[in-house]
Amino acid sequence: MDNLSYNAFIVEETGKNNFTGQVKEALIDTLPDNDVLVRVLYSSLNYKDALSASGNRGVTKQYPHTPGIDAAGIVEESRVDTIKKGEKVIVTSYDLGMNTAGGFGQYIRVPGDWVVKLPDGLDLKQSMIFGTAGLTAGMSVFKLTQTLGPDHGDILVTGATGGVGSLAAGILSHLGYTVVAVSGKTDTTLLNNLGVKTIIARNDFLKNTTSPLLKPQWAGAIDTVGGEILATAIKSTKPEGIVTCCGNVASADLPMTVFPFILRGVSLLGIGSQDCPMAFRSTVWNKLASDWKFDYFEKLVDEISLDQLNDKIERMLKGELNGRTLVNLN
Question: Which residue of 32, 129, 174, 221 lies most exposed, with the fewest beta carbons within 10 A?
Answer without folding.
Answer: 32
